[in-house]
Design a protein that fits this description.
CATH topology: Rossmann fold
Bound molecules: flavin mononucleotide
Largest sheet: 6 strands, parallel
Number of helices: 6
CATH class: Alpha Beta
Radius of gyration: 15 Å
CATH architecture: 3-Layer(aba) Sandwich
Structural class: alpha/beta
Number of domains: 1
Length: about 190
């Protein structure tokens, strides 16, 4: 089994909701064991990351960057950076915020640079925005037009009602895509 971890912080459940859709998509790839992990539970034991083949990192966008708990998790991996314990593993990122842009790109950039410093292999969100093919905007895959990672826009309702269907659909496809890449790289390495 290839081991993939979806690692996230969520204060009010919106990032957690998208994380669950990503997990559902990834679990559709045969041979993939998917764990859903909170940063709060990992910050004290970052060595646990070495057991995984790939990671999908998720944080809400707070003031144009990752949230403080997510940054604490990243900083806790300093010793792993020194011995390059995560080198060659797959990494991808997602973020949730309330505004259509909301400076979400900065959050993804933090995750990208973190992953590059660890020598990991970054995987993006390779889906063309479906509204260009006539799909209604709210239902369109990658409607927010983000390729470097997954972006989702949360309304102010409860997490289950806060997202356009296009964003949850993109999340499932994104999880499936990253799990497929992990599987392909593992097969090539075997
Ligand atoms: C301190 C703070 C800063 C925020 N900064 C931004 C921001 O820069 N851009 C944005 O679009 N939304 C911003 N938001 C809104 C959150 O990204 C949004 O509510 C998100 O859904 C929270 O995710 P969560 O429910 O998983 O905690 C901010 C919220 C808080 C509490």
């Amino acid at each position: 089994m290839n081991k993939l971890a979806v690692i996230y912080h969520s204060a009010h459940g919106h990032t957690a909701h998208i994380a669950q859709h990503i997990v559902d998509g990834a679990r559709g790839v045969p041979g993939t064991d998917v764990a859903l992990l909170r940063v709060e539970d990992l910050a004290g034991s970052p060595d646990a990351l070495t057991a995984y083949d790939g990671f999908i990192l998720g944080s809400p966008t707070y003031l144009g960057g990752v949230s403080a708990p997510f940054k604490a998790f990243m900083d806790a991996t300093g010793r792993l950076w020194r011995n390059q314990g995560l080198k060659g593993k797959v990494a991808a990122g997602f973020t949730v915020s309330s505004l259509p842009a909301g400076d979400k790109q900065s959050t993804l950039m933090s995750m990208f640079v973190f992953s590059m410093q660890h020598g990991m292999v970054w995987v993006g969100n390779p889906f063309l925005p479906e509204q260009h093919q006539g799909v209604p905007y709210d239902e369109a895959v990658n409607r927010l037009g983000s390729w470097s990672g997954l972006m989702a826009q949360a309304g102010h309702g409860s997490p289950a009602d806060a997202f356009a269907p296009g964003d949850t659909k993109t999340a499932r496809l994104f999880g499936q895509h990253v799990a497929s890449v992990v599987k392909r790289l593992a097969a090539e390495a075997a």
